[in-house]
Amino acid sequence: MSAKNIRIYDTTLRDGSQGEGVSFSLQDKLNIARRLAEIGIDYVEGGYPLSNEKDVAFFEQIRKDDLGDTKICAFGMTRRRSMKAADDPGMKALVAAQTPCITLVGKTWDYHATDVLNVTLDENLAMIGESAEFLAGHSEVIYDAEHFFDGFKANPDYAIETLKSAASAGATCLVMCDTNGGTLPEEVAAITATAIEKLADYNIQFGIHTHNDGELAVANSLASVDAGACQVQGTINGIGERCGNADLISVMANLALKKKDYSVLGGRPLTHLTELSRYVYETANLQWRGGQPFVGQSAFAHKGGMHVHAINKAASTYEHIDPAMVGNERRILVSELSGRSNIVAIAKQHNIEDDRGLMDKILAEVVRLENQGYQYENAGASFDLLVRRITETFMPHFNPIKYRIVAGDRESGSGNVFAEAIIKLEVGEKLWFDAAEGHGPVNALDAALRKALIDSYPCLSEMRLIDYKVRVVDSSAGTAASIRVNIESSDASETWGTIGVSENIIEASWQALVDAVEYKLHKEEMPLGG
Ligand SMILES: CC(=O)SCCNC(=O)CCNC(=O)[C@H](O)C(C)(C)COP(=O)(O)OP(=O)(O)OC[C@H]1O[C@@H](n2cnc3c(N)ncnc32)[C@H](O)[C@@H]1OP(=O)(O)O
Ligand SMILES: CC(=O)C(=O)O
């Protein structure tokens, strides 16, 4: 029997943008919608045309794109009380959006109708039915039954009546929403099955929309699918109101890779998921979630020596899927919990021969440096350079001679505090003496270093510093506390971490910056081990 294709409905641009700290520009919205269409998402909810001009402009512009089979949806609520649907500004805005699909949200929970909207239960049913009927004259209508599960628990007959009202008015899919995110999977399964049974005569499809307040949004989506729902609504990375929505990344991966009865995206491979997840984080200007299942940086990162020992024999010993299936990759971390296996595994990734003497040498150096406060877990690029130094394949691209920082220079009247860095370094025979200004000493050092190197190494223009972390660490050497600086840098193809440790924060930052630049230059020319 062929797998049942579950339609994926993305609301990153609407419910996702209701997440705290998330704000998409018009261009961000257009870019994300295009990305989602590229990977074959079935529905992309673009926004709320009644809400703001940006969303109106989004629908105007995206209409000109050929998005293949992906349907753009405009979202809005049922008509206001005591008003004809045709006269309601919200209805008019939805029609004006000219989308192939309109998603209409209405009230299911009797208490919300009477105490929040201040309407009778019959008026709420009329608002749902008349709105759906009006919109169905213009476009496909998906009906989002807000608070469906809470409403059903409070008054099951009325909750079912609201669905019937939308179904008989021409909606094509009824989406049961766990709006407050507090329902348990077994309740979702039972209520989904009951709703489907009660509307058996309507020849209509069902969908599920969950929130993550009980950390069950993905589990609840899967439970509803098992009970008969054939559309899942959610957001990329689970961003959304309060604790967020169901993370579509995990929903798609679980449905397609774990539950053999289902497929998503018409059976296309899911190898773009990691890239998509990071693209949305970057566009939303949010930090990646390292431990995010399937696509997080740590999702396939192995730290414990015993784990790495087993992974070297068979990946399935500590990996639930092959990371490549979702476009992710295995990472082997080096720390005080490492055994020789961690080093061997990393060496393998770098095509370095598994030479016991060499591995012991690397491990001994890692342990020595960790005693001083270094930690290579998030500093794979510094570890790479360390291995190059031990294997004598490190070829310095420049020789830093000295730097000086003038900190705390206040621009008169502006309130801005600047720092200046002056650096001297050698590239081959040539001596460079450069100065630059920055918002702080590290920013100034970074700017001065690039300025001095850019003529010799133009590829540095692609590189940017994306994160900077400082921590005070106790070195086992005893005397003064050390400062550990971690810097994350990236270019178009990779993100890499470097580390510096010193009693002085500027020196620690300098070491991490120099490693970041050296790593970029080495990787451009010659991968480690070949
Ligand atoms: C579960 C969800 O995520 S639903 C989507 C939630 N998303 C958003 O709210 C973001 C976009 N919203 C907005 O931009 C604004 O709230 C707007 C434009 C929709 C409405 O703005 P305003 O008219 O100023 O109303 P406000 O937001 O204060 O209150 C909501 C109004 O809609 C009414 N309303 C709420 N839900 C519904 C509904 N399903 N059907 C009809 N009317 C509704 C309320 O009764 C209230 O009207 P009232 O003041 O006459 O009682
Ligand atoms: C429709 C919606 O976003 C909700 O009920 O959560």
3D structure, described in words:
The chain is of the alpha/beta class. Helices cover 38% and strands 22% of the residues. It is built from 17 helices and 17 strands. The protein has helices spanning 26-39, 53-62, 89-96, 110-117, 121-136, 148-154, 156-168, 185-198, 217-226, 248-258, 273-284, 305-313, 340-349, 356-371, 380-390, 441-453, 505-525, and strands at 4-10, 43-47, 71-77, 101-107, 140-146, 173-178, 205-210, 231-234, 262-264, 301-302, 331-332, 399-410, 417-427, 430-438, 464-473, 482-490, 495-502. The strands form 4 sheets. Strands 1-2-3-4-5-6-7-8 form an 8-stranded parallel β-barrel, surrounded by 9 helices. A 3-stranded antiparallel sheet has the order 12-13-14, with helices on one face. The chain has a 3-stranded antiparallel sheet with strand order 15-16-17. α6 crosses α7 (156-168). The longest helix has 21 residues, at 505-525. It is elongated, with a radius of gyration of 28 Å. The structure holds acetyl coenzyme *A (ACO) and pyruvic acid. The site of acetyl coenzyme *A has 16 residues, from β4. Its EC number is 2.3.3.21. Keywords: Acyltransferase, Amino-acid biosynthesis, Branched-chain amino acid biosynthesis, Isoleucine biosynthesis, Transferase. InterPro entries: 2-isopropylmalate_synth_dimer (IPR013709), AIPM/Hcit_synth_CS (IPR002034), Aldolase_TIM (IPR013785), Citramal_synthase (IPR005675), LeuA/HCS_post-cat (IPR054691), LeuA_allosteric_dom_sf (IPR036230), PYR_CT (IPR000891).
Major sheet details: 8 strands, parallel, barrel
Strands, count: 17
Structural Rg: 28 Å
The chain-level mean pLDDT equals: 92
CATH architectural category of the largest domain: Alpha-Beta Barrel
CATH class of the largest domain: Alpha Beta
Ions and ligands:
acetyl coenzyme *A, pyruvic acid
Strand content: 15-25%
Organism: Rubripirellula obstinata
Keywords: Acyltransferase, Amino-acid biosynthesis, Branched-chain amino acid biosynthesis, Isoleucine biosynthesis, Transferase
Catalytic activity: pyruvate + acetyl-CoA + H2O = (3R)-citramalate + CoA + H(+)
Domain Pyruvate carboxyltransferase: 6-274
